[in-house]
Structures are given as C-alpha cells and as structure tokens.
C-alpha cells in the first residue's frame, strides 16, 4: 500500500530530461493545488462564507482539471497537459472575476499564478501571450466597472483575505516549486558537467596515452639515439600522470647500481647520481621488479632524506623491463598535499613503461650496432691510412729500408735511400739474395743472425758497419724486425746513415771538452733565462755552492724564486740586454744563510727569446770594500774625537794651571806681607787645582783604555751586577735617602764585568747627583722588551730630568749641563764608550722636571760581538 501511494504521488519518468523536468513540476504543482482547493472548498462549504454555488463549482472544476492533468501527464502527454492546465486555470479565473467582484475580486491576482505557470511549463512566448490577455481582461473589467455596465460589489474583508491567503499560498507553492526546480536543474547541470568533465578527462588521458603510445612506437623506428629517446620518454611520462617532477634511470653495465640519465623539475639536479638496490622507491622497484607506489612519502620508512627535503609527498616508481630483466626505472613524484597517484595512473604508467622498455632496448641495439660500424669503419680507415703512411714513409724516408725473405734473404723491395746507401740499383739487386750480393761473409754467419732474430723478433744495432757496393763501410744504426707479408715471413731492415753525425759528434765532443774546461776555469754560475724570466739551463761554477738544486728552479720563473726587487731588476736587465744586444751588469745581495752574500750579474743576449746571465760571488770583495769603508769611517771618527779630545783637554787642563800660576803670585805677596792665614788659603786652592787636574787626567786615561785593553768576557747575572754597583754608591744614596728598586728575573748578559759595573755605577751615581728636591727620590734598575722583541735595560729616576734638546749632548766629552755641579763631565762619555764597545747602544728618555731614564742594549748570553774590550 505505501508503495502504491509513492507511485501515485511521484512524477513519471521519461527519456527526455526536459519532459521529466516539466512532469516533476506539474506533479508537484497539481497535487499542491488540489490539496489547497479541497481545503478552500471545505472551508467555504462548512462556514457558508458566500451566497451562491458558483465559486464552489469553479473551485471544483479547477480541481477536476488538475486531476485530468495528472492523468494526461502519466499517459505521456506532458506538453498537452501543461497547455490544458494553463488555459483551464486562466478560463476559470476569468469566469470567477466575471461572476464575482470584477477587477476587485481576489481571482484577478491569480492571473500572476497563471502567467508564472505558463512561463515554467510552456516557455517565454506562451507566457507573453497569457500576460497580454490577462492584462486585456483586467482592463476590460475595469472599463465595465468604470462605465457602470456591471455593478460594483465589494466582498467581505474576511472573505477577501481568505481568497488572497489561498492565492498567496498557491503562489508561494509555485515560487517554491520554481526555486526548487531551478536548484534541481542547477544541481543536475553540475552533475552533468562533472560527469562530462570526468568523461573528457578520461578521454584526454586515453588520448594522451594513445599519443604517448604512438610517439613511443615511432620512437622504436625513428628515435634510435638513446639519450634523446630517454628525454622524450620522461617528458611523455610526466605529461601522462600530470606532474613536472620525474626521473628515468638505467642500470650500469655491471648491474651494480642505477644511474639517473635524465630528470625533470626538482629532480634535475640529481642527473648522474647512483641508486643502489633497495635504496628508496626506485631501488625497491629495481630489486623487486614491481611497481612501488608511496602516497605518504614523508612517513614511509624507506624515504630518501635529500628527496624528502625537496618537499616530495607522493612517489611512484615503475621498473623498465627487457624480458624478465630490469634495465632501469621510471619514477614520478608530486609535492602537493592531498594529490596522490591513482591506480588508473599507475596502470597507465606501467603500460607506458612496457613500451618504453622496448624502445630503450631497440635504441641500445642500434647504438651498439652503430658503435660496431664506427669501430669497423675507423679500423678500415686507420688500416688504409697506415698502409698509405707506410708506403709514403717507405719511399720518402731518408732511412734506408729493404724487405728480404727470411729463408733465402732474397730482395723483395727497397726504397731509394737504401739504393743510395748500398750503391746497388733496383734492377741489379731485386730478386737476388744477400749472399749473391756479398752482403754476408758466409752462410753460417747469416744463419746465426737469422736464429737470433727469430728468437728476439727484432734486433737493434746502433754501431753497425754497413758494407756498400764500393767496398767502403759506413756507420749506420741498424734495425731488423720480422714481418708477415701474406703467408711469407720476411725481414724488414732499416739503416740510418750516421757517418756525418758521428764525425760531427766527435768534433762536438772535442769542442765541448774545450768549452767545459773553459767554463770550469770561470768562477761564475751561468744561467740561460728566457725573456720572461724562466730558467732554461744552468752551468754551475766550480768551488761555488749552489743556493738550491737545479731541479728546484729550472723551468720556474725568477719572480717565484727571488725577492721582488731583485726579480724586477733581473727582468729589466734581460729586456735591456735583449733589446740593445749589449752587455748589462748589476749587483744584488741575498741571504742564503746567516750572512748576506753579494753577487754581480752580467747579462748578454743570445737570441731574441733568451739571454745568458753570469753570476759571480763578490761577497769577499764587498766585505773588503765594506771593511775598508768602515776603517776609513772609524779613522775619521777617531780623528774627529781626537780633535775634540785635544781641544777639551787643552781647555780643561789650562784652567787649573792658570789657577796655580795665579795663586803662586798671591803666595809671594802673602810671604812678603807675612799674612799666614791667607797664605794657607792660597796654598789650599793650589792643592785643589792639582787634585782636579789629577782627577781629570785619571778619567781621561780610563776613557782612552776603553776599547784597547781586553778582559775575557764572562756570563754575568744582570741583577747581581746592579746590586754590586748600588753598593759602590751606597754613601751618596743614603745621604739623600734615595730608594733603589731592582727588578727580579733580569736576564744574564755577557761581557767585561768590571767595565759593565762602571756603566751601572756611573748611571746610578748620575741619577743620585741630579735628584733635585724630590721628596721621595727613587731609582729603578730593570729591563723591558722593545717592539722587535729585543731586551732593553734601563736606569730610571724621578729627578730633575733632561730637556729633549740636550739628550745627545749629555754623552759628549766634558759636557756638563750644570757647570756648577760636581764631576768632570767624562762619566756619561765613558758609559757610552763601554756600551758601544760591547756592541750595544745607549740613549736617554726624559723631559725637564719629569725624571730621566737611561736606556741601553747589551748582548745577551752567547751574542757578544768580537773585538777588544778593556
């Protein structure tokens, strides 16, 4: 029973989709309208809302029309039922308007429902027609009412509202059906579009597959070169599965690994890389011979870390098979999330891989055949070229060549050089044996030679004496070798006439011996150097040690071996000598060891590309010149010092003498006058003058001894030396309450202990003497390291200091900045002399009022210079 009602209230189904749409609309609208009309009839009948039976009859007629529409529609007359429904409804509404309230009746509004129904069921043109006649009817009833042709009647408001409610419900139902129909149509259209797109996509894939098959099939015929074929296969495979990322790999000849031949997209960067068995999806496809599909590559346990870093999400690897043997693999990849490879794509790629494998096999066979053909052609070409070269060499070679039979020694052929060397003509010798031409002394000797040649296959005799037809022997280099000409074994003999070369060699050896003797007598190293500074050859000098072995500099550039300044100087001399063809000379110095060596270079051009450079060691000469200059300079310094010394001594010694002479006159006066107290004072002044002269002469004598008298040098701890010096001046230090600071850990020095003690004593005494009014006088003895890493000793005080302009003057003989101070002015000059004799130097660092630091250098243990020290 329920199924019967479902069939009754369901719309019939037809083959035409348009007919089905109209039937669904008619079915829904008619049943909805019948239900509404029945309710309206019942309400009118029960409540007797109106007088007369005409409205009920009209409503009943419309209900009957709707039932008839249902019957006609189920019989297949959907179009006819639609026309009947619209016409009947319009006629019923018009009759209702006529019978009821005219244009003021609610039925007039129902024209809109009729027009909408006509537009949905019949189309635009019928809808326009019903719109026109409905408007005409409305105006017709309006004109009648205007002209009072038919009386005006106003319905009860409740009745009017009832009728409008029914019309609105019917209109709402119609609008709902309209919207639902549109949605249903849109939904059907979308489904149809999806199906069509799916069908088109499938057709396109089939078309692509067929195209790929077609192109691959053409590749079997046309693409006979492997690499273009592989690139085409990979391109078509990427297009088939819809991804830009893919690779094609082939097995290596030893079947040890797969090698990526071509890659597309992100995988291009791995061209040439190798894949081992079971490594990644490709390696597993190669090992198993089955397709490997991984739609969740990041979580797959066999993923490759480098491929994963590219963002790959899905991988498919299909083996390429030749029979049952896997010859490679075709792999595709995608980086998009949620876009896996379908099984249809897998199947498509497998079928494509089968054809691709056939194409690869065919291309490999073609390449193999082509390579064999190329090798064969190359062999034939090389053989013909070899034969042609041999023929040309044989006849044009200056080497005498002949071919004789092995057993008899019969002449088969020879070149012009052989006929010239032997003196035989081809007419006389060809066809005869070596014994016939008397080329061998005996048959036994030739037999021994043949036995030896058969064992060795080839013989080389660099000192063979060739017997010519005229009986004159010639020096030749002989070479014999067995050759096969057809089925006969022959001897290929070659003779190179070196008679003139041997004569030239003898003359050259004699000349070379003379040249070698001459070169051995020259104390110069001789280099042949190219114009751009490359060492080409080298002849060492006798009794001169080379700075480096020849193999370390021959073939190398001067700029890489010599200091930049010397290299530039040498290149300049080479260019000048080659350009002017004149001798060019210069001198330079090199430090091959601990001492500087000096050399003189003489450059003479031998061609436009190279020159001879003769190097002579002039170190001894330079040393002599330097020593001479030093002695001259030292003599000049001594003379200047002697002049200053003479002047100073004459000046400073004259002062006490003048004092003595002057006070002798006073003594005479004091004696005459009997002034004994003044006489004693004058005698004391004469005594003081003589003491001063005695002190001055003693210090001058001490200064003169420095550098002349030698005491043996010894190892001296500097801190002990400083303490001994301080002890000697302890009285002056205590008298002025001067603190002494001596650094700990001072280095040991080497020298004359007594003289170096005088240095420290004089410097400490000098600092104490000029301490001034310093409330906390202090003298520090120590050492420091200079910027070059050397040790600098110093004696520093916080006394009155020395102005910068007097820094050099304080070391002069008899130079006293304060003439009223005690002392002779020789102390610092003596200090400077002792320091210099020990190979050091001394200077002062001071400013007026800021103390003074006397700094000096001394040889540390083991570095004392040679020379007299006293």
Can you walk me through this structure?
This protein is an alpha+beta fold and 870 residues long. Helix 7 runs parallel beside helix 11. The N and C termini lie far apart (149 Å).
Rounded average pLDDT: 78
The overall strand count is 23
| Helix content, binned percent | 40-55%
Q: Strand order of the main beta sheet, please? A: 3-2-1-6-5-4
Low-confidence stretches: 862-870
Task: Kindly name the structural category.
Answer: alpha+beta
Question: Major beta sheet, specifics?
Answer: 6 strands, antiparallel
Helix segment tally: 23
Terminal residue distance: 149 Å
Determine the oligomeric state from the structure: single chain
What amount of the residues lies in strands? Answer: 15-25%
What is the overall shape? flat
List keywords for this structure.
about 850 residues; alpha+beta; 23 helices; 23 strands
Describe how the helices and strands are arranged:
Blueprint: H1 2-9, H2 17-47, H3 54-74, H4 78-99, H5 111-121, H6 124-146, H7 157-221, H8 226-241, E1 245-251, E2 258-264, E3 274-275, H9 280-288, E4 292-294, H10 305-309, E5 314-322, E6 325-334, H11 343-396, E7 400-405, E8 411-414, H12 416-422, H13 426-429, H14 443-456, E9 458-467, E10 473-485, E11 488-497, H15 499-521, E12 524-530, E13 535-539, H16 558-561, H17 564-580, E14 584-590, E15 597-605, E16 610-617, H18 619-673, H19 676-705, E17 714-717, H20 718-728, H21 730-735, E18 739-742, E19 748-751, H22 753-769, E20 778-785, E21 791-797, H23 827-837, E22 842-846, E23 852-856
Parallel strand pairs: 18-20
Antiparallel strand pairs: 1-2, 1-6, 2-3, 4-5, 5-6, 7-8, 7-11, 9-10, 10-11, 12-13, 12-16, 14-15, 15-16, 17-19, 20-21, 21-23, 22-23
